[in-house]
Amino acid sequence: MPKLRGEAFWRETLRSAHYVVAPMVDQSELAWRLLSRRHGAQLCYTPMLHAQVFLRDANYRRENLYGEACPEDRPLIVQFCANDPEVFVQAALLAQDYCDAIDLNLGCPQMIAKRGHYGAFLQEEWDLLQRMILLANEKLSVPITCKIRVFPDIDKTVKYAQMLEKAGCQLLTVHGRTKEQKGPLAGVASWEHIQAVRKAVNIPVFANGNIQCLSDVEECIRKTGVHGVMSAEGNLHNPALFEGRNPLVWEMAEEYLEIVRKYPCPLSYVRAHLFKLWHHTLQVHQHLREELAKVKTLEGIVDVNRELKLRCQEEIANQKEGEKPKEGLPFFHWICQPYIRPGPKERCRENGDSGTEKGVRGKRALEEEEDGNSELLSKNKQKKKLRNPNKSFDPSLKPKYAKCDQCGNPKGNKCVFNMCRGCCKKRAFKETADCPGHGLLFKTKYEKSLSWQHSQRRIQTPEISQRGDAEVGETAVQKEAGDS
């Protein structure tokens, strides 16, 4: 049976999905996908998987995809990051029997993606992307899809999308932010870019960005004309987003923890989910935030969740009539609701003034920290300050280090080659030399090895001569016995 393409693929295989849970590193695992599906999600993506690791590591495949079969976890799209056509296709071939499509990640803007040369950092390499998608479209039995970020220029974004469609992409998810828009600089996603792409291509398009509640989903579909809407952070803070509900946080947390018992995942995933769900409450009960960060078992996380629930129930019982949510929240902190990420200025103000008022130090801007003010130092630096009160973190007072002759990194103070340890090691090995400053003793060890070999030969030589003399004596005795 030929694989379905374009609109037919979206309509029949993906069941005309409108509500989509995004691929999230270490956050869209099976347990979270099942929770989201119970509360309105119609299509889910796996976390981003590394094609190279997936190809070579059987444990990685088992932990991320080959686990216990779960029929209700469909339709499902597996997302890979990759920068090599052969590696991408070979990994996809190992995954295609466990999903309904393979997605190529062209949207990750993080520094790890820059170092690994994947995600949004491939968006200028159109020839490479064409080869990857063409080969995947030819070899795979399931459709190939892509998730992209936009360029600042709408026309270039449209041409980019058309190139991917021509290469064989059967569904396109467009995150309406550029790769520079991330963290505090995220800003608002451009639905104008998404609308332009939707009009320019003939394949289904999903929109991503600015989705905090169900009304945002409906407005996005109306304004852009897309087939579906994908949510990441909105879903993490409220897994019932696609139901249009704002449930009590502990209801979602308890349901999720029950699913985790049946479909286990790393504890770090579970902890991260509870930090998102309880985000607003943990600003109030800071000591429980620290407890959640420390616990080492699932039962420990369950206990912290139970304690948070009890604290909230006490607040509800003591609530005065007509009392309104604090901190400008639309709902009380124990209700699932969006988290609006503050911009750089708001973040500094929020963590500087309001943080110190509560007696809790929040995150600071780097420039605030560098003046050496202990109230603005990180916790780690405050500990160092306690151990050494005279310690200064003023960058202008830091000693100026001499640079390595080879690479420019700080050189070892006692290095005989005036190099950093890495360059020194390479040179000392190549020249069979010593560098006491870095503890590298290639020459000494080589000489010791030669000395040991020489002593072994001297020990063996007398043994051979003694054995030879004995043999000669024995021969003489035998001869004499023969003569007699």
TrEMBL record:
It is found in: Cytoplasm; Nucleus. One of its GO terms (cellular component) is nucleus. SUPFAM superfamilies: FMN-linked oxidoreductases. It comes from the Eukaryota. It catalyses: 5,6-dihydrouridine(17) in tRNA + NAD(+) = uridine(17) in tRNA + NADH + H(+); 5,6-dihydrouridine(16) in tRNA + NADP(+) = uridine(16) in tRNA + NADPH + H(+); 5,6-dihydrouridine(17) in tRNA + NADP(+) = uridine(17) in tRNA + NADPH + H(+); 5,6-dihydrouridine(16) in tRNA + NAD(+) = uridine(16) in tRNA + NADH + H(+). Residues 21-313 form the DUS-like FMN-binding domain. The keyword DNA damage does not apply. Residues 453-464 have a biased composition (Polar residues). Its main location: cytoplasm. Its EC number is 1.3.1.88. InterPro entries: Aldolase_TIM, DUS-like_FMN-bd, tRNA_hU_synthase_CS. Its cofactor is FMN. Belongs to the Dus family. Dus1 subfamily. Catalyzes the synthesis of dihydrouridine, a modified base found in the D-loop of most tRNAs. Specifically modifies U16 and U17 in cytoplasmic tRNAs. Affects the level of some mature tRNA and thereby the total cellular translation. This is tRNA-dihydrouridine(16/17) synthase [NAD(P)(+)]-like. It comes from Rhipidura dahli. The lineage of its organism: Eukaryota, Metazoa, Chordata, Craniata, Vertebrata. The gene is Dus1l.
